[in-house]
Amino acid sequence: MNTIKLRLLLEQFFIEDIGDRDVTSELIFGNESRGSLVLIAKADGIFCGEQIIHTGFRLMDENSLADIKVKDGEKVKCGQELAVISGKVSALLKAERVVLNLIQRMSGIATKTSEAVAVLDSTKTRICDTRKTTPGLRMLEKYAVRCGGGFNHRYGLYDAVMIKDNHIAFAGSISNAVHAVRASLGHMVKAEVEIETKDQLLEAIEARVDCIMFDNRTPEEIAEWISLVPKGILTEASGGITLENLNSYRNCGVDYISLGFLTHSVKSLDISAKVVAEKEGDVSNEYFGVARI
């Protein structure tokens, strides 16, 4: 993950939430009170968000300390302690909500990806994501997919050519679209074509594309057509594939299955923060409760 970009993202998110200041925490605690937040999993799943915790809390208090008990990609159980962050109380409370929101979502994506990988249960076919990510969170969400055992498709419109139905319609044919791309495309950038019919498949093969996507095709159709694809051309299935029917694609022969639901409709993993404050003149801690604000 690009840590420079992560820091910039977190700064934007904190500015959105804090504005000029956290009125409540500053008035109650000032700038000297110290304490700890204990992050606790409230459901089973896959954890993701180590760098969010480290970077997020240190942006609010550069002297804060984060003791993270689990690694990205590890399974966690309901009730398990994930991390303990110590520092100024006002800084902990400023960072808490943004950090929780992000690690809950990222852990939810990692968990769903892990489920998909387990359901497919294939040594040949890889699960990958799509561009159906939350605006502003793509780097984080695609990282979460990797933590769940999946792989990343292209990151955006800039890093690979993907000729879809609308491109083909405007260009007049797959051949026209591929020819226009190949005339100027650098040798390091791959080109993929989305096909829906057998004739389109043959045209894409003739055009010597790098990857062919079978769009909204049944496992039976893909298994029949894929024998026509020469070695050296990658294959992908996408469209209409859910967790419920995913295992039916196990033996269709494609290299990748891209799943939009990994990011566009995933449920966040429930994680809460238990607040512990240092009592003045006493090294003992007082439990204040579970923060869910």
UniProtKB/TrEMBL annotation:
Belongs to the NadC/ModD family. GO terms for cellular component: cytoplasm. One of its GO terms (molecular function) is nicotinate-nucleotide diphosphorylase (carboxylating) activity. It holds the Pfam family QRPTase_N. Keywords: Glycosyltransferase, Pyridine nucleotide biosynthesis, Transferase. It comes from Mesobacillus subterraneus. GO terms for biological process: NAD+ biosynthetic process; quinolinate catabolic process. This is Probable nicotinate-nucleotide pyrophosphorylase [carboxylating]. Residues 22-107 form the Quinolinate phosphoribosyl transferase N-terminal domain.
